[in-house]
From TrEMBL, chain A:
Keyword annotations from UniProtKB, A to Z: Endoplasmic reticulum, Membrane, Transmembrane, Transmembrane helix
Keyword Transferase: no
UniProt keyword Membrane present: yes
A Gene Ontology biological process term: dolichol-linked oligosaccharide biosynthetic process
Name of the protein in its database record: UDP-N-acetylglucosamine transferase subunit ALG14
Organism: Thlaspi arvense
Chief location category: endoplasmic reticulum
Topology in membrane: Single-pass membrane protein
Gene Ontology MF terms: N-acetylglucosaminyldiphosphodolichol N-acetylglucosaminyltransferase activity
Annotated TM spans: 18-35, 55-74, 130-149
Family membership noted in the UniProt record: Belongs to the ALG14 family.
Pfam families per record: Alg14
From TrEMBL, chain B:
Domain of life: Eukaryota
PANTHER family in the cross-refs: UDP-N-ACETYLGLUCOSAMINE TRANSFERASE SUBUNIT ALG13
Domain Glycosyl transferase family 28 C-terminal residues, every copy: 11-164
GO CC terms of this entry: UDP-N-acetylglucosamine transferase complex
Database matches in Pfam families: Glyco_tran_28_C
GO biological process: dolichol-linked oligosaccharide biosynthetic process
Protein name (database record): Glycosyl transferase family 28 C-terminal domain-containing protein
MF-aspect GO terms: hexosyltransferase activity
Native source organism of the sequence: Thlaspi arvense (Field penny-cress)
Length: 233, 176
């Protein structure tokens, strides 16, 4: 009789301690998430770092042209090394980025191997069925995670393509887990005049972008936390 | 502008971008549009038709009509734009800004068949600032008829300096 009681007590005690552990872990995580959300968008103190490793997410066509326009005026010594990522189906964008990096190397004063290039699987291609896209989404997220573990960027620059969403999500996770603190800068495409793109809307609403830029004054009125910066093109 | 048999060559360059836009190709080779172009002194019509399946009839202009020629893709679209007197383009931001930066008169034709048609936003916003004219395939003729090239405002290209300044300040870099 006593033995069974004892057993029940010890079981209850161990159950309690597991519960307590789960609850405290949840509380700690929630506090951490809230802290990360509070810290996002807060500027760094002066002279915080000499340079930042930078991830640049490229999209097709107009997106890449706009991104290169921004990169051409950024101080390269402050944003180094640079990692470029484009969708696996998009060969043009990485080629343009390589041409851009080569033109910098010609100007000298740029350290060797300061840039790297990678392609990323897309979760869903245009016209793909939703059934197969479940599997491809899993593959795409795993691939994004692998790339982010390797790169661990301190700065992420993106301007619209859907491929930036898993990367920014993982960056947020890294911040919560204390793996890497990164600052996300998002520039909405010049083609968006009245409405944000889905990627832009997600990053704005979830406050995942540290600084958010729009190229038309109409959009800034609708999304007051955004900076209006005029056309990049 | 080249001299070609005593008449100055004035090219209208049409570009559909990387996909297809047959409605635009059909619209530019319609009799109405060709007549209007010729009336306005254009001599050549050159069409980049992309993956479209509609091939217009080529014409060497021997009978004094508009010279019509086409091709699918080219890596040097900028050169074609540079040598054109008028550009008629799809609504992609790449083509639009490439043409505006080269200071060429531009009519943007919006593809109404695209599902997520946010691209007309850009063309309409730039039309409001008088940098270009905006049309649909079926209104291209009217747009051409009322077009006044002289009243277009030259586009001043922007750059990333304001974005760079804010990013630099955010990361704690001193101002230059």
């Amino acid at each position: 009789m006593e033995e069974t009681h004892c057993c029940i007590y010890s079981k209850m005690a161990s159950k309690c301690s597991i519960d307590l552990f789960v609850i405290s872990l949840t509380v700690v995580l929630m506090v951490r998430v809230l802290y990360v959300m509070y810290r996002c968008g807060k500027p760094f103190p002066k002279g915080a770092s000499e340079s930042f490793s930078t991830l640049i997410v490229l999209g097709s066509g107009g997106h890449t042209a706009e991104m290169l326009s921004l990169l051409s005026v950024l101080r390269k010594d402050r944003f180094t090394p640079r990692f470029y990522i484009a969708a696996a189906t998009d060969n043009m964008s990485l080629q343009k980025a390589r041409t851009f990096e080569d033109s910098l190397a010609d100007k000298a004063a740029v350290k060797e191997a300061s840039s790297q290039f990678a392609q990323i699987y897309r979760s869903r291609e245009v016209g793909q069925s939703y059934v197969t896209s479940v599997w491809t989404t899993v593959v795409a997220i795993a691939h994004a995670l692998w790339l982010m573990i390797r790169i661990r960027p301190q700065v992420i620059l993106c301007n619209g393509p859907g491929t930036c969403i898993p990367l920014c999500g993982i960056a947020f996770l890294f911040k919560v887990l204390g793996i890497r603190w990164s600052s996300i800068f998002y520039v909405e495409s010049v083609a968006r005049v009245k409405k944000l793109s889905l990627s832009g809307l997600l990053l704005y609403k979830l406050r995942m972008a540290d600084q958010f830029f729009v190229q038309w004054p109409q959009l800034q009125k609708k999304y007051p936390r955004a900076h209006y910066v005029g056309c990049l093109m | 502008m080249e001299e070609n048999g005593g008449i100055a060559k004035r090219v209208v360059f049409v570009t559909v971008g990387t996909t297809s836009f047959d409605a635009l190709v059909e619209a530019v080779v319609s009799e109405d549009v060709k007549n209007e172009l010729q009336k306005r002194g254009y001599t050549h019509l050159l069409i980049q038709m992309g993956r479209g399946i509609y091939s217009p009839t080529k014409c060497d202009g021997a009978d004094g009509s508009l010279v019509v020629d086409y091709f699918t893709f080219s890596s040097s679209i900028a050169d074609y734009i540079r040598s054109a007197s008028l550009v008629i383009s799809h609504a992609g931001s790449g083509s639009i800004f490439e043409t505006l930066k080269l200071g060429k008169p531009l009519i943007v034709v919006v593809n109404e068949d695209l599902m997520d048609n946010h691209q007309c936003e850009l063309a309409e916003a730039l039309e409001e600032r008088k940098h270009l004219y905006c049309a649909r395939p079926h209104t291209l003729h009217q747009a051409l008829a009322k077009m006044e090239v002289e009243s277009l405002v030259r586009y001043t290209p922007g750059d990333g300096t304001p974005v760079a300044r804010i990013i630099d300040r955010f990361l704690g870099f001193p101002d230059e």
